[in-house]
């Protein structure tokens, strides 16, 4: 093996390792691996869509999307506490916050299904309050 072949092999290994790293960090084709940020953006989109929904089907659809994104976000780790054990106090705090949001989304689905639409604005305000409370707590990495 001459030195050019060795250089070529090193280059190939570097490219393959780079592609594997991209896949690992969610930039590859693996659509199952949505980042926490992507899920948060989806929560926000669905929340806004639910607020301005004008029919029950759209409202329930938005709430379901919001719930799916929140459920996935619950299994992820905020950047501010990367590296902490899954059962650290911060991680428990974070999952408890996501549980509160998930419970509120379920309540919204129940209210909407029962036609109790006049009770929804207060519940949406409460969701916003939970968001504020937890964004504040994990604020070191929040830009919005
Ligand atoms: C209606 C409820 C919520 C909305 C609309 C919302 C929205 C957002 C948005 C737009 C971002 C910025 C995403 C980006 O980087 O572009 C964000 C980030 C974040 N949110 Fe929320 N959020 C909500 C509730 C929560 C709750 C309940 C928690 C914690 C229990 C939470 C924890 C976080 C964290 C930790 C980040 C930073 C992401 C990271 O570390 O990578 N959010 N959220």
UniProtKB/TrEMBL annotation:
<keyword id="KW-0472">Membrane</keyword>
<keyword id="KW-0812">Transmembrane</keyword>
<protein>
    <recommendedName>
        <fullName>Cytochrome B562</fullName>
    </recommendedName>
</protein>
<dbReference type="GO" id="GO:0022900">
    <property type="term" value="P:electron transport chain"/>
</dbReference>
<keyword id="KW-0175">Coiled coil</keyword>
<feature type="transmembrane region" description="Helical">
    <location>
        <begin position="6"/>
        <end position="27"/>
    </location>
</feature>
<dbReference type="InterPro" id="IPR010980">
    <property type="entry name" value="Cyt_c/b562"/>
</dbReference>
<dbReference type="Pfam" id="PF07361">
    <property type="entry name" value="Cytochrom_B562"/>
</dbReference>
<keyword id="KW-1133">Transmembrane helix</keyword>
<dbReference type="GO" id="GO:0009055">
    <property type="term" value="F:electron transfer activity"/>
</dbReference>
<keyword id="KW-0732">Signal</keyword>
<dbReference type="GO" id="GO:0042597">
    <property type="term" value="C:periplasmic space"/>
</dbReference>
<feature type="coiled-coil region">
    <location>
        <begin position="33"/>
        <end position="76"/>
    </location>
</feature>
<comment type="similarity">
    <text>Belongs to the cytochrome b562 family.</text>
</comment>
<dbReference type="GO" id="GO:0005506">
    <property type="term" value="F:iron ion binding"/>
</dbReference>
<dbReference type="InterPro" id="IPR009155">
    <property type="entry name" value="Cyt_b562"/>
</dbReference>
<dbReference type="GO" id="GO:0020037">
    <property type="term" value="F:heme binding"/>
</dbReference>
